[in-house]
Amino acid sequence: AAVEYGLEAPFDVEFHDSIPSTNARARDLAGEGAADVAVLADEQTGGRGRLDRAWSSPSGGIWLSLLVRPDVPPAHAPAFTLAAAVAVTRAAREAGVDARIKWPNDVVVAGEDAESDDGERKLAGILTEMEGEADRVSWVVVGTGINANLEPAALPSEARPATLLDEVGAVDRRLFTQRVVEAFDELRADPESVIQAWKKHATTLGKRVRVDTPAGEVVGDAVDIEFPGTLVVDTGEERVQVTAGDCEHLRP
Ligand code: BT5
Q1: Domains of the chain
Q2: CA of 222 to the centre of ligand 1 (A)
Q3: Which of 89, 140, 181, 210 gives 20 to 30 Å between its CA and that of 13?
Q4: For ligand 1, is residue 127 a contact (CB within 6 Å)?
């Protein structure tokens, strides 16, 4: 079923009932010179996560890609992932969900045992893609997948998914998306403010973590986050700055 989105400015909206991937569509639009477009779909048939993983996107979710052309160097792109995570977390908390941010790109709902990630379930994930020169990005596409009006059973169980439907009942997807886009728009105007906002809702800080990074595994205490989205892990011997990777919360 199609949904009337009609988002308010500053993003033009392109809505699809079904599309392979809103990120792929936003990248095409970037190639055509577009800016400040929100691509939305009710269903994606080829949704992607990081490292080309599949992202399950049945009808009823909020599959959203924001195409922006910020005046920043490519190294600042992680701040946009963080901004989207904060935006989704705020909207979910307003809707009554105890959402928190798991570094770097997950919005999760806490489980019974809030001290470890046992039972933490993934409500949303973010995939940021970009193109640009050394000193300035040409475009950034911030893809955000939010499990909205879906049953968790419609998603892969090994992914331990959470959905808004299951947590608080069906949401008005147009309004929810509007809140996410507004918050993102506010945060992107001041990327350095994102870090403070992120810390407020982070579940990773203070936890013992194992991070699988391109340079190897880092195990220690997640002690801080630094602009543009670097996780600082205290291994007991040194403080390691991790810019990318998959993070697992360990029991203390
Ligand atoms: C992400 O990747 O979490 C980024 C997901 C981005 C999706 C959006 S939807 C709109 C836009 N268009 C796209 O094509 N993509 C973006 P990653 O951290 O790599 O997590 C991927 C893993 O999450 C998978 O390997 C599964 O285990 C799990 N997963 C797949 N679908 C899920 C879902 N709907 N909910 C929760 N977990 C899921």
Answers
A1: 12-201 (3.30.930.10), 208-250 (2.30.30)
A2: 23
A3: 89
A4: yes
